[in-house]
Amino acid sequence: MLNPADETFARTLAAALPEGTISPAGPAYLEEPRRRGATPAATLARPRTVDDVAAIVRACAAARVGIVPWGGGTGLVLGQVMPEGPAPLILSLERMGQIRAVHAEENVIVAEAGATLAEVQAAAMAAGRLFPLSLASEGSARIGGNLATNAGGVNVLRYGNARDLCLGVEAVLPDGSVLRGLTRLRKDNTGYDLRNLLIGSEGTLAIITAAALKLFPRPAGVGTAFFTVADPVAALDLLARAQAMTFGGVTSFELIHRQGLLFLDEVLPQVRQPFAERPEWMVLLEIGLPAGLDPGDTLATLFAEAQEAGTVGDGVIAGSLAQRDAFWALREALPEGNRRIGAISSHDISLPLSEIAGFLNDAPARIAAIAELRINCFGHLGDGNLHFNVFPPQGGQADALRHLAPAVMECVHAMVVARGGSISAEHGIGRLKVAELERLGDPAKLAAMRAIKATLDPLGIMNPGAVLRR
Amino acid sequence: MLNPADETFARTLAAALPEGTISPAGPAYLEEPRRRGATPAATLARPRTVDDVAAIVRACAAARVGIVPWGGGTGLVLGQVMPEGPAPLILSLERMGQIRAVHAEENVIVAEAGATLAEVQAAAMAAGRLFPLSLASEGSARIGGNLATNAGGVNVLRYGNARDLCLGVEAVLPDGSVLRGLTRLRKDNTGYDLRNLLIGSEGTLAIITAAALKLFPRPAGVGTAFFTVADPVAALDLLARAQAMTFGGVTSFELIHRQGLLFLDEVLPQVRQPFAERPEWMVLLEIGLPAGLDPGDTLATLFAEAQEAGTVGDGVIAGSLAQRDAFWALREALPEGNRRIGAISSHDISLPLSEIAGFLNDAPARIAAIAELRINCFGHLGDGNLHFNVFPPQGGQADALRHLAPAVMECVHAMVVARGGSISAEHGIGRLKVAELERLGDPAKLAAMRAIKATLDPLGIMNPGAVLRR
Questions:
Q1: Could you tell me the keywords of this UniProt record (chains A, B) (predicted)?
Q2: In this structure, how many other beta carbons lie within 10 angstroms of the beta carbon of residue A100?
Q3: First vs last Cα of chain B: how many Å apart?
């Protein structure tokens, strides 16, 4: 049983730490972006050093107080809020935001957990390198949270998830010991892979305090285009062509459905659209190329070949950086469009690539069997990762139809599981999907996860109730 | 305490399994390539299905019999032999060697653990794809062992280790339960990363029985060359140039020292050498390029630029497939040359790239302080992974100087640790390096590893004594 982070606890802890480290947690630390859950009350800790983090964890272990780690607060699955249970300590890494080192010649950057993703990208850029993790919330999401949740985004196709970009971590374990694993090595086979166990564990096994991350050379040329396609099968054919032509140089391949474009017309009409008639499907693709190849020419050749094969319909190739930014602005406006329309139920799913067409073929009738609803499906097609979001019919209100959410979720998850897919591709489990993971997860995997949680965090103080039931 | 896999145990187990599954283990299963250790006696199990593997593990758990998993038997750190303790069961996956499926359109192959690496490569090739893991023993090493040891090899620079190439695993856990994790997904954030925990755990946490692996498009053009360089700093400069020019298209970047070439002159004179005068250092580099670029031209441009900058001296670019094969034959002859000369002590180390020059600068004097010895250092420079092997002086015998091995190892490891390196880059810990891992490993990491081992394998039956002391 956990105890609340009450005033006595807060006072004792504050006295043991540098002035200003401990305070009551204001509303900004108690809520999450979609307002689907909140922490009723909490104490806030904002340490400046890994030793202070260790001292805080030891104090929480001694007092049996739950810890909710806090990065940028941008998570979408309630991993950063604790609606039930005794008031926790919210441990924000915001004051540990230093770039500790940039080793450009090694293509390595060492950043503290509280650095925002945009700050890490900027530090890489200043050194003439690329840190490729990129997602809509990069201005506020912090790298510690990106790692804790194994964040994905728009460049996974070429560069992998947060996990694939991390060489080493420094972390505080549930007993307050410090894992000093900030290795800058590309190869290290000395024992179990704790780094990857902590990455994606959503703060339930450790507090990541810093990481050594991979950098990359910047591509000599970047090309960006919108191509319309008849359906997702055509989009996958286009992807295969583009990959073959560029030797894996496709960095982003984003699928967009007409519904998303119509939502923009409705609630964000200022967003510039590339085609006068809204296509049923289109893709935003971006390629990086070595010196000696012109990205515009390569995309034009790709378009011509794909058009001849009947794979693409229309196309626009960005002719300037400003145009490229405008293309991406449309892609990044899609989630905001969704928010303004108001979803009944949102799904972050992934499928084997060859199952996507069947899934998208089946889905509309299955959803229609529940009620007359609108579907906006978009996402990182190259990774098999779709955001499949379900909305009220034109003129309807999500709140009035929220009772349909469980049926919609069950329907979507059943289709996903039947096709060997995942019910959480990049957002994680948090507290939102704990029951679904229990219901649908592999029993041997769940048993092993519980055993690992129990042995590393026997008191259950680390992000209680996230990923696994308390 | 473990019990021996004695005749009674073998008889009972045999009766519960298909005919021919259980037999006494012949010498081929008791020894390892460098003859530095052997299993005195053992029972052999060669199951054909994952259910049989599960039955065997359950029987061993019930009888408290140790299990030594056996792939191709090519490991170099005694992970596949158990010189001490009661006779174990050797569990060979050789009869589970099927390619279960090739999903070319998804770039995925599903292979059983007993398929050799060469068989997996061939199945990928037959589907017009590339499975890039490549190492000298690929004809006999099996993919299950490659995953259990997180194998590296010559293409890690571009494609990553075995870990990076694996999407999902099927594995039997120490209680005999089956982890059914053969996902073909690029993104899946549903809980802790057990896949990566099992990969690289060297058979101490589970028996991997099958894996879903990533395939890649084959490059449109491949170029291969030997360039001479003055020293490793120049080699790293050449690597950076090559990476920038090809947008990360360098697939191999192997450093070779004159000592290795002289060893070949001595014991394998039939190996064709590219330069009449043996250079102090040279690199074998290979690049993959998209359509539209000629690899020969690109390498010629790279050479001209690097020569003008003073980075390279001489160079030879392969003009045919046969010449490319000859280049690689030299690289692959280096370990055989070492074996014939006979090393006193071999080290599979990795370093941050910017520490390599300093290490190689310091090492000769430090080794010379122990005795007059010869050093052959070669390896995967792009990954910071060096094979640093120490030999007797000209005319000397390794056996007569074996007493120097501990001092040499301690000297090398001290230099490596001081520079933030790893004492096992790609070979693993096995039983050979358990004491060194204990001595030099991060205490928090070791404690967490022991806790995980104890909770997943409370009886200690899985590869007893490997990675962690029994």
A1: FAD, Flavoprotein
A2: 15
A3: 10
Per-residue pLDDT of chain A (470 residues; tens, 9 = 90+): 899 999 999 999 999 999 999 999 999 999 998 888 999 999 999 999 999 999 999 999 999 999 999 999 999 999 999 999 999 999 999 999 999 999 999 999 999 999 999 999 999 999 999 999 999 899 999 999 999 999 999 999 999 999 999 999 999 999 999 999 999 999 999 999 999 999 999 999 999 999 999 999 888 899 999 999 999 999 999 999 999 888 889 999 999 999 999 999 999 999 999 999 999 999 999 999 988 899 999 999 999 999 999 999 999 999 999 999 999 999 999 999 999 999 999 999 999 999 999 999 999 999 999 999 999 999 999 999 999 999 999 999 999 999 999 999 999 999 999 999 999 999 999 999 999 999 999 999 999 999 999 999 999 999 999 999 98
| B461 within 8 A of B65, measured Cβ to Cβ | yes
* Structure tokens, A19: 């002035």
Chain A partners within 8 Å of B50 (Cβ): none
Contact in structure between A275 and A228 (CB atoms under 8 Å): yes
Q: How far is A335 from chain B (nearest CA, A)?
A: 20
Q: Which candidate in A50, A178, A189 is best for mutational testing of the B interface (most B CBs within 10 A)?
A: A189
Nearest CB to B187 within list A185, A383, A449: A383
Best residue in A77, A186, A438 for a mutation probing chain B (most B CBs within 10 Å): A186
Are residues B422 and A189, on separate chains, in Cβ contact within 8 Å?
yes
Q: Convert A140-177 to b/e letters by CB count within 10 Å (16 or more is b).
A: ebbbbbbbbbbbbbbbbbbbbbbbbbbbbbbbbbbbbb
Which of A174, A171, A176, A159 has the alpha carbon at shortest distance from A198? A171
Q: In A, which residues are within 8 Å of B423 by CB distance?
A: 190
Instruction: Kindly provide the ipTM of the predicted complex, given to two decimals.
Output: 0.96
**If you ran DSSP here, which 8-state letter would residue A165 be given?**
G
Taking CB atoms and an 8 Å cut-off, how many pairs form between chains A and B?
280
Give the nearest partner residue to A293 out of B150, B290, B421, using CB atoms: B290
Nearest CA in chain A to B221: A247
The CA distance from B452 to A192, in Å, is 9
Distance CA A201, CA A197 (A): 7
CB contact under 8 A, B150 and A189: yes
Residues of B with CB below 8 A from A219's CB? Answer: 247
DSSP A105-126: GGTEEEEETTSBHHHHHHHHHH
Rounded distance between C-alpha atoms, residue A93 and residue A302, angstroms: 45
Q: Which domains does chain B have, with CATH numbers?
A: 99-217 (3.30.465.10), 219-337 (3.30.70.2190), 342-427 (3.30.70.2740)
B60 CB contacts (<8 Å, ≥6 apart)?
B5, B66, B67, B89, B461
